[in-house]
What we know:
The chain has helices spanning about 1-10, 15, 25-35, 55-95, 100-115, 150-155, 195-205, 220-225, 460-470, 475-490, 495-505, and strands at about 45, 50-55, 165-170, 170-175, 185-190, 230-235, 245-250, 260-270, 275-280, 290-300, 305-310, 315-325, 330-340, 345-350, 360-365, 370-380, 385-395, 400-410, 415-425, 435-440, 445-455. With about 500 residues, it is an alpha/beta fold. It has three domains: about 1-65, no CATH class; about 185-460, no CATH class; about 460-508, no CATH class. Strands 4-3-7-9-11-13-15-17-19-21 form a ten-stranded mixed β-sheet, with helices on one face. Strands 5-6-8-10-12-14-16-18-20 form a nine-stranded mixed β-sheet, with helices on one face. Strands 1-2 form a two-stranded antiparallel sheet. The longest helix has about 40 residues, at about 55-95.
Amino acid sequence: MKNFFMRYNEITGLKDKYKNLNFPSYTLLKFKMAFINNLYFGSSFHFKNKIFSKKYFKSSNQKKCKLYKNRMKETIESKNSEERKQWFESILSVREKTEDRVIENWKKTAFNVLQNTPFPSKNDESWKLTDLSNFFKMRFQKKSEKTLSESKIIEEYLVPELKNRIIFIDGHYQKQLSNLDNLENKINFLSLDKLNGNKKIEIFESMLKGESGMDGGFFSILNIACLNDIFLLEAKKDIVLDEPIHLIFIGTNEEVANYVNSRILIIGGEKSSFKIIQHHSSYNQSKYFENSATNILLKEEAKLDFSYVNEISEKSCHISSIHADLNKNSKLNVLTTVFGGFMSRISLGVDLNGVGAYIEINGASITDNKNINDFHSRISHNYPECKSSQNQKNLVSGKGRSVFAGKIQVQHGSTCTEADQLCKTLLLSPESRIDSLPILEINNEDVKCTHGATVSDLDQNQVFYFQSRGVSIESAKFLLTLGFIQEIIDRLPPGLRQRLSDNVVKII
């Protein structure tokens, strides 16, 4: 009898369990009676001249449940699709027109490609780990005529030891606030409209490939479709610059969300050596989306120290597409530090296109609250005797989420390749999360490649050691956390290092 009631309850409970599947009440009642009357006549029973088995019943409801789930999925996808369309339309409403014919032609080409390019989603391999739900809720409007005092805007971003500076406010170059007086005979800095037609086309061709080009995905294409201007920063042949050039990008909109579009091309002439700091920040708690694209081209034996700093407000988001081409015996040192934005993503692609080319990448990111930091990299060894090294450190607290996806590619014929990759993550909360995807794609035997990833919380043995020396547990955790990330920050100039360290202290 006990078995009877167990099986009966299994049937009678279906109405509540699958109430959204529209079971007719009278049909369910008759089904119950047929089941009771025939319970002990085997595993099957008759109902309306049909034979029903337990297996059939289970299979039938699995199909209905699957159908229900599919309908729910379709409803959600339809809602997300409509939301993304509204987001895209709001960007188009603030898109600026340019007078340059070459730029306008490329904008139209990119826009046509964009219309056939799907929005990033979890179905996309490169975006499946990044939650874009809050990002696509943003709506953009044209900025009001009211502007803030320029001197008031920039005073907190100037670093005393960085005298060479180029300033952009809301994506627009500010000549009166910039200072390149000491570099007139060493670098060329100009907008694309200053070049003749053939030179413009040549510049575009160098920019329209890799992560920041037409094949770089939705946001790189969007950047081209919304171009205001393109700026060229070129270090001349044989020039050596000891003092860094500080590129400052400031977002200022506070009333409504703003869309900021920026693109710059950095060229290192043969045997040149120079340093650039690309610094993105926000004025107060400005709300905007910055879509940034950077191209780097190093000619033979050129050397560049490139630092990328992101400290935008938590109301803003930042997506950066960076692509670098390295020629014979050229060297690129990349430093990335990301501490701001409710959603930040860097897509870095490097092509080693000459014998002896070398790339070194050091990165640090701090994620807290419900923010997302995403770092994707691709390093392609296309020639023999090239070297690459990558060291990424992530600090995740609260309900923050961090993503690291690094791919090293060794192409056919790229002999004597050396490459190493390491991602270390420190989780400070049980609710924090990291997704690490180190990847090696090797198509050659004569290589030396390593990769790895570690995830941990604070080492309790180290905490205990500090305590045994009279240090409080709070101070011990603070020192260990700061020490973990400080290794990367210390590579920056003193003034900027102190600025970022103060921000780290606030987060920790």
